[in-house]
Amino acid sequence: MPDTQRPLPLPQVNCHACSLSRLCLPASLTDGEVAELDRIVRRNRPLHKGEYLFRAGEPMRQVFALRSGALKTYLLEASGDQQVTGFVLPGELIGLDAIGAAEFRGFAVALETSMVCAIDLQQLEDLSGRIPGLRHQLLHILSQGIHGEHEHIRCNRERAEQRLAQFLLSLSARYQQRGLRQDQFMLPMTRGDIGNYLDLTLETISRLFTRFVQDGLIECHGREVHLLSRSELCRLSGIEERSIVPRGPEQFP
User: Fold this and answer.
1) Alpha-carbon distance values, 172 to 164, 176, 225, 248 (Å)
2) Banded model confidence at residue 13, pLDDT cuts 50, 70, 90
3) Contact criterion met (CB below 8 Å) for 233 and 169
4) Phi-psi region of 11 (alpha: psi -120 to 50; beta: other; left: phi over 0)
5) Which CATH number covers residue 37?
6) Rg of the chain over all Cα atoms, to the nearest angstrom
7) What is the pLDDT confidence band of residue 51, given thresholds at 50, 70 and 90?
8) Under the phi-then-psi rule, with left for phi > 0, alpha for psi from -120 to 50, and beta for the rest, what region is 28?
9) Does a structural domain hold residue 49?
10) Could you give the CA distance from residue 218 to residue 228 in angstroms, rounded to a whole number?
11) Residue 35: which domain range?
């Protein structure tokens, strides 16, 4: 009888082997420091589309880093309506806005099958107290989040077409930062979510997508978007192309 074929070993998952480490907490850490960080990281089972990473009111004991997939964060208004606060892509941290609070203030739900790393907050605080580079990276990420909130408020005072152009360009820059195509990508979120985030109605967002297609700025095939004229999108957004900086989950457009 032929020998039973042994299953191939699963690829090792750790901070050293992660292609997104340069975007996450290990950025600028030494190999030894990354190993220390890796010891406090827990890699959970996949979240499937529609599953929650956390909900408002749940105890805040961990922060998270997205390894793959995409998440949406939102707050719940008194009326029961969602207010979308951001979209999380791989390599980005989530939950830092709840540091100092006993409970999460908002919700985080998977837009597609997603893998998440969980980091105990107390252990992270202790480790960042001993590793200056980790402390600096945490402060850098928090600073980006504050800056992004200011930019989001400013953007939502602009014309509707300017908001959408800025959104698409910033999302493009984020994909490029991950080594993916910047001119062609999938939108993990619905147009309704985009409209909610940009403070525009679904009808307005749908009309703008149609207009951008008719004007030759983009092509759309379902949720796949192809940017045909970055220069014209930049002109429409009021941003110079060289100044487009990728921002984090609650930090764009």
Assistant:
1) 12, 6, 10, 12
2) low
3) yes
4) beta
5) 2.60.120.10
6) 20
7) very high
8) left
9) yes
10) 5
11) 21-148
